[in-house]
Amino acid sequence: MTFSNITVEKDGLIATVTIDRPDALNALNGETMRELIHAMHDIDGDDDVAVVILTGAGKAFVAGADISELSKMGGMEAREASKLGQMAFSTIENLSKPVIAAVNGFALGGGLEIAMACDIRIASSRAKMGQPEVKLGVTPGFAGTQRLPRLVGFGRAKELLLLGEPIDAATALSYGLVNKVVEPDELIPAARQMAEQMAARGGAALALVKACVNKGTGADLETGGAYESEAFGLCFGIGDAQEGMKAFFEKREPAWLRKRNG
Which CATH number among 1.10.240.10, 1.10.12.10, 3.30.70.20, 2.30.130.10 corresponds to the domain 203-250? Predict the structure, then answer.
């Protein structure tokens, strides 16, 4: 599929998805949301992709939702736009492959919300993050009120949501909102290095670990443990566990049984 607002590049086992509306600071409109859903579905079914990097073109990661589009909406239209954004971000969150957000600049409103839907966030030291929606008289619409407390705790989340003030990358790191901060020219190499390390792991194990964390977080410990036991057994059932342990004893790299390039 040809996209107008995003680009998808594949290099080895890594796919890089770039939101490509630099003149609009990569603001998220409806068309961009739909393109992200299509791209992620394509990637999910591609056995030759193990890890995804999500970033933005130009000086912004994503500066927010497209206010020029939102400003023309009534209540029902806004509700549907919120549902579309939540669907797009849930597609990212529930992708069977790890997704690393390379936050290269402004990640405000919908920009922070899409970053929070990713599994890992690496930020440029110049990045600014926040949920400024209250300054426009609205709430976050793409599940920011739900993901932010889960990442940074209720107190800090409410401060960010109720004040609407952005924070810098160093503060985001101290809050646990990002995993790592690097200099701007090191951002994509750092994301790429982490992606390559992940891609060398067992493909089924990556998908199952992600699913266990996502499903288990909203469950009690017993239910989460049951998910994990099923996942653990599946790794043995498909043969990856045996290959990984055999490679460990033979001091070589594993030849995972999932499909690889070529």
Answer: 1.10.12.10
pTM: 0.94
CB-CB contact of 118 with 55 (8 Å): no
Q: What is the pLDDT of residues 161-217, one digit of tens each?
A: 999 999 999 999 999 999 999 999 999 999 999 999 999 988 789 999 999 999 998
Please list the active-site residues. 113, 133
Element (H, E) at 34: helix 30-44
**Per-residue 3-state assignment (H helix, E strand, C coil) for 150-213:** HHHCHHHHHHHHHHCCCEEHHHHHHHCCCCEEECHHHHHHHHHHHHHHHHCCCHHHHHHHHHHH
Residue found by looking up tokens 């797009």 in the block: 88
